[in-house]
Amino acid sequence: MGVEVTVEGLTKHFGSQAIWRDVSLTLPAGEISVMLGPSGTGKSVFLKTLVGLLKPDQGSIWIQGQDLTTLRERQLYEVRKLFGVLFQDGALFGSMNLFDNIAFPLREHTKKPESQVRDIVMEKIELVGLQGAEGKLPGEISGGMRKRAGLARALVLDPEILLIDEPDSGLDPVRTSYINQLFIDLNAQIDATFLIVTHDINTARTVPDNIGLLYHKHLAMFGPREMLLSSEEPVVRQFLNAQTVGPIGMSEEKDATELAAESGMELPPLPPIALQLGTSDGRPRQGEKEPGAWCRENGVTPPPGSFASSHAGVPGVSRATGTAPEPVGA
To answer: Could you tell me which residues belong to the region Disordered (predicted)?
Structure first.
């Protein structure tokens, strides 16, 4: 079962450079959250701060009644056992085969006998679909397989919080779709709290229960997926819909001249909100909500055609019922 993570007023500088200021949010227990933002906004720094690898200048990170920012090294070491981390490139040891890479945390942090280590490693290898590849070196497999091996290693200590840094980096769209489905299925099986940092808009639109956006040294918005996908907030709307019109420019923020040139331009309509990706076997997830529920509860009319799909059994269709709901706002 995942645990809730509450961040209050988190601020981080490197020297005189502010990375982000006064970030506050709550990652709901057992749900999948995604953190977005233009390149260089400190998303990876945020992950490293959450797990205690970097210390914030101000603020608190509350997990199970403990503020990680005030813990001593021994206490922090214990809390870190709640975390599993998948780094951008998998961070595998090049001289070890996949089995030994995945077994490394068990051998390093537990006193389990080798027979038990093997059982756990093979279970995680099967979970991520790498059966038969355990004897290969990282250099002998594809980027997608390295990501899955890194994920298996992040899972061997049965974490309650899973931090995932740009899982789509270096992957083609097909492999990205496979790994997105894997995250959905894993969340249903282990009920861990997921936080995924990504630039992939399709991932952000179809995978998470919650979305956050870091921009210009602050958290622009964080909340349920439907809230952000129906938002008229300029920076949120621009980023989530991959539009050129808006405050984000090539150097993160547009200057006054660029913004003036866009004055009076009509924004393209918001695209329909897609159905959230369902589990492969139809089992429900803890964070799964009925399509359109947030919009109805908050009196928001979603873009026309939202939550529609031509048939079940494809990415984005709720597999819990095997059918797609009627379009909302059509």
So the answer is: 275-330
Domain holding 158, by residue range, is 5-226
Q: Residue 123: which CATH number?
A: 3.40.50.300
How high is the pLDDT of residue 195? 97
The helix/strand/coil state of 290 is: coil
Least confident of 40-44, 193-197, 290-294: 40-44
Q: Where are the beta strands (DSSP E) in 166-302?
A: 193-197, 210-215, 218-224, 248-249, 252-253
Integer Cα distance of 194 and 197 in angstroms: 10
Tokens 């940092």 correspond to what residue?
Answer: 197
* CA distance linking residue 176 with residue 186, whole number of Å: 15
Which residue reads 């090049």 in tokens?
Answer: 94
The tally of domains found in the chain comes to 1
Given a contact cutoff of 8 angstroms between Cβ atoms, the answer to whether 210 and 25 are in contact is no
Whether residue 282 lies inside any domain: the answer is: no
Statement: residue 261 has pLDDT above 90:
no
pLDDT in tens, 224-255: 999 999 998 888 888 888 777 667 765 555 55
pTM for this predicted structure: 0.86
